[in-house]
Amino acid sequence: MLSRDALVELTEETHGIQIDMIYARADNFTGKVIYPHAKCYLHPDAEVLFKHAISAAKNFGFRIKVFDAFRSQQAQQALWDCVPDPRYVADPKIGSNHTRGVALDITLQSLDGQDLDMGTAVDTMTKASHHFYPDLAAPVLINRMYLMTVMQEAGFIHHPNEWWHYQLPNASRFALLELPV
């Protein structure tokens, strides 16, 4: 089992990304602060691939903004307690790929820091958040495809119901990490 020391911390300085850990603030779908800090961690296997995604985004003229990465089991339970809907929140009894440290919630930004229009806010739990929702404007669908291209070329797979969620394939092969928030 990995310790917190074995997870890789992502920072704006070391990775050239923007970090906006939404569960470290109350303006998320729960209405509560879930994380006592805004630090961002990934499993080393995911971090290696994520560096490729960061580079690919730059090649398109974008940068990546991270909303969430490693999530403790306690945090996962808090999200489930608020919205026990497995289409959008993993049941903590099964385990979240965030709790394995191999999933990210992200978006793309222009190099001047403007978020690309993805059609919905992150964690909007409706059909409009589904990656291939057809009733969106063409520029939104194109932006989602840029994000998918960047992440899939790096080796990640997408969640069909959440345009923002990417994870390593076969994520269940990684252990759930029992680390505190």
UniProtKB/TrEMBL annotation:
Q: Give the record's GO biological process terms.
A: cell wall organization; proteolysis
What Enzyme Commission number does this protein have?
A: 3.4.13.22
By its UniProt entry, which SUPFAM superfamilies does this protein fall under? Hedgehog/DD-peptidase (SSF55166)
Say which enzyme class the record assigns: hydrolase
Which branch of life, at top level?
A: Bacteria
Which cofactor(s) are needed, names only?
Zn(2+)
In the record's cofactor note, how is the cofactor described as bound? Answer: Binds 1 zinc ion per subunit.
Which Gene3D superfamilies is this protein grouped with?
3.30.1380.10
Does DNA repair show up as a keyword for this record?
Answer: no
Q: Is-annotated flag, keyword Metal-binding?
A: yes
Q: Which InterPro entries match?
A: A_A_dipeptidase, Zn_M74/Hedgehog-like
What role is this protein assigned? Catalyzes hydrolysis of the D-alanyl-D-alanine dipeptide.
- What name appears for this protein in its UniProt entry? D-alanyl-D-alanine dipeptidase
